[in-house]
Amino acid sequence: MRIAIDAMGGDHAPEATVQGAVLAAKEWSDTEIILVGDETKIKAFLTEQPPNMKIVHATEMIEPDDEPVKAVRRKKDSSMVVAGRLVKQREADAFISAGNTGALMTTALLIVGRMKGIERPALAPMIPTVDGAGVLALDLGANMDATPEQLVQYAIMGSIYRNIVHGVAKPRIGLLNVGTEAMKGNELTKAAYPLLEQAHIHFIGNVESRDILQAKCDVIVCDGFAGNIMLKSIEGAASTIFSALKTEFTKSWLTKIAALIVKPGLSQFKNKMDYAEHGAAPLLGVDGLVMKSHGSSNAVAVKNAVRQARIAVQNDLVRSISAEISNGSEM
């Protein structure tokens, strides 16, 4: 198995990327880790190189503020494009990047290619939940608009991913909406609801965003506009709450004592909600395994992204989704 990593993508690259890649290479000796990027910069943080790791040199990198389409077309020797090309040419089984999200999606479409039968790929990150199981959400930003038929494709891909990668036997699929009643919502959700009922999935109906963290479903389906707003709202609320708690617990010696008492429980809860545990979000619907890590990924997050990629490759995720879509099971 060969997994390519965009060594230059992310807020803490290449240091965190290289460190995470080394951790992964040591953990899984049966997997070849391919670091793609500026060889000199990579080696500056590579204190040791496991035998199952190699470097593929790339002279350019795509910056966070680069315009996605122009960057991918002009920077043909960027670490992201070169890594995508490795997947396209079947020289790597998967490709992971924490870099520019728009550029990664463009690379996936222009370089790796869209899966036959899929109208639009979907970005599918895990949203942490209080029980630790998480909810797979798609689409959360790859496409701002979607058709009812595309939402059904998202649901099918999400169901397969949760089953294959996370071992959920019969994933519960929910449709993000403003109410639980079948006829609630806008024209998109109203049209998608009956199609989801007919699909070969375990559709449980509409789910409100306030119920996501309570794990009322295993997969939540939505268009990229609503999904991205939901994700950013949850991230913002979590960040604000933890920041406010820190302020309150450091106000006086009495609150500091109280903080020591509750610290184990708070730490455990914070770990449940930590993006690093989930590693990366797959871009489902691409004819190759492409995964997007959080921009601020640390070494642990990179390692966990490799773990996710390994499971997906071992269980032939891409072919499973392709077969299901080709069979027309969404109708």
From TrEMBL:
- Extract the SUPFAM superfamilies matched here: Isocitrate/Isopropylmalate dehydrogenase-like
Query: Which Pfam family, giving just one, matches this sequence?
Result: FA_synthesis
Domain of life of the organism encoding this protein: Bacteria
Q: Which GO terms describe its molecular function?
A: phosphate:acyl-[acyl carrier protein] acyltransferase activity
What does the record list as GO biological process? fatty acid biosynthetic process; phospholipid biosynthetic process
Enzyme kind, highest EC tier: transferase
Where is this protein localized, as stated in its record?
Cytoplasm
Write out the pathway annotation from the protein's UniProt entry.
Lipid metabolism; phospholipid metabolism
Q: Sorted alphabetically, which PANTHER family does this protein's record hold?
A: FATTY ACID/PHOSPHOLIPID SYNTHESIS PROTEIN PLSX, PHOSPHATE ACYLTRANSFERASE
Its quaternary organisation is: Homodimer. Probably interacts with PlsY.
Function in brief: Catalyzes the reversible formation of acyl-phosphate (acyl-PO(4)) from acyl-[acyl-carrier-protein] (acyl-ACP). This enzyme utilizes acyl-ACP as fatty acyl donor, but not acyl-CoA.
Name of protein: Phosphate acyltransferase
Organism the protein comes from: Paenibacillus thalictri
